[in-house]
Amino acid sequence: VLELLWPLTLMLVLLLISHKLILKHCGAKLTYALWGLVPVALAIYMLPIPWHKVAQAPNLAIQHYLVKPSEQFISVQPGWLFITWLAGALLIIGYWLVSHFRFSQQLSITKLSTSELALPLPKKLKAYRSDIAYSPMLLGLFKQKLIIPANFSNRFTRSQQKLILEHEICHFDRNDIYWNTLALFFVALFWFHPLVWLAYFKFRQDQELSCDQIVLARKQTASRIEYSKALLVVAEFAPNIAFAQLSFKKYGDKHMMFERIKQIKANTQVKKLSLAVIAAVSVGLLSGVSFAGNQGQATEQQYREDLSGKEQMRRLPQKPEMR
Q1: Distance (Å, rounded) from C-alpha 249 to C-alpha 2?
Q2: pLDDT tens track of the chain, all 323 residues?
């Protein structure tokens, strides 16, 4: 975990700094996809790609010295670091699991006939009604369920119902719930890193914005207006903290809904030049992370080989001196 801190921090800083710029010029769909660079960068950083064989120059004149400090410093034992990290990770995972179980029990769902919905659902997705839910949501990891509020048909028009259901089907088709699980794993793994929490919040927001962009990609202005009105209705009835998004922060609050409406109004289209620049920067960044990771592994391996060679030289019998 400690070895992955610097490439993780580098990727998060770059994505968070450039987030608004990318969202403005490239849209939410591409912005959401760019979060995939984080796990890819960490995986590439750990892969044993032999960059050092090409870039390594012979350097036999380097000698290693063992420098002992004159004063004794108090250091934190690795065992305590591991125990602290493990306790934090288990506490976060346990809180999420317990909260998710309690939330699922409180829903009190009943099966809903697909004929009551404004459009047909995928075969593997079943609909259920709940009096607790304030807006449609997907629930479940192994067997996903679409939870529909009991007053869904009364609060929204028929056209709004179709657009909202298309939004949830988009989440289902993209397997967003599995990507969310992976994101939660990263949060639990690096729970002590503040940028990881901020990135998780942005990731979930971009997920909603990208679904909006996909649903409204080929819709007319009237559909965009209807969808924006539906978001305002959801914001009006949304609770202060909606655990449906599985986070510590609100994603259904009014600020987020107005941001979604703003993106709907902007209707940003990706330009070829912007796409080419982002692709080039992404490839260069991933290559740099891979090179840095393997250079570090090569340096450590070479250092161990040098120490091993010196130890073997010391064990060789010494020749007697000539008198």
Answers
A1: 26
A2: 888 888 888 888 988 998 888 888 888 888 898 888 888 888 888 776 654 454 444 554 555 555 555 555 555 555 888 899 999 999 999 998 888 888 888 888 888 887 788 788 888 888 888 888 777 888 887 788 888 888 888 888 888 888 888 889 999 999 898 899 889 988 999 999 999 999 998 999 889 888 888 888 877 888 888 888 887 777 766 655 443 343 333 444 556 666 777 777 666 666 666 667 667 777 777 676 666 666 555 455 554 555 455 555 555 455 555 55
DSSP string, 36-54: THHHHHHHHHHS----HHH
Q: How far apart are CA 262 and CA 84, in angstroms?
A: 42
| CA-wise closest residue to 192 among 84, 315, 73 | 84
Under 8 Å CB-to-CB from 163, ≥6 apart: which residues? 215, 216, 219, 223, 226, 227, 230
Q: What does residue 4 show for φ and ψ, rounded to 5 degrees?
A: -90, 0
Query: 127 in helix, strand or coil?
Result: strand
What are the two backbone dihedrals, phi and then psi, of residue 101, each rounded to the nearest 5 degrees? -65, -45
The C-alpha torsion from 256 through 262 and 263 to 269, rounded to 10°, is: -170
pTM above 0.85, yes or no: no
Residues 30, 110: Cα–Cα separation, whole Å: 37
Helix (H, G, I), strand (E, B), or coil: what is residue 130? Answer: strand
Structure tokens at 42: 């960490």
Query: In the 8-state DSSP scheme, what is residue 118?
Result: S
220 CB-contact burial (10 Å; exposed 0-12 / middle 13-18 / buried 19+): exposed
Residue with tokens 């997907």: 138
DSSP code per residue over 85-97: HHHHHHHHHHHHH
- Picking from 163, 139, 135, the residue whose alpha carbon sits closest to that of residue 150 is 135
Burial class (CB in 10 A: 0-12, 13-18, 19+), 69: exposed
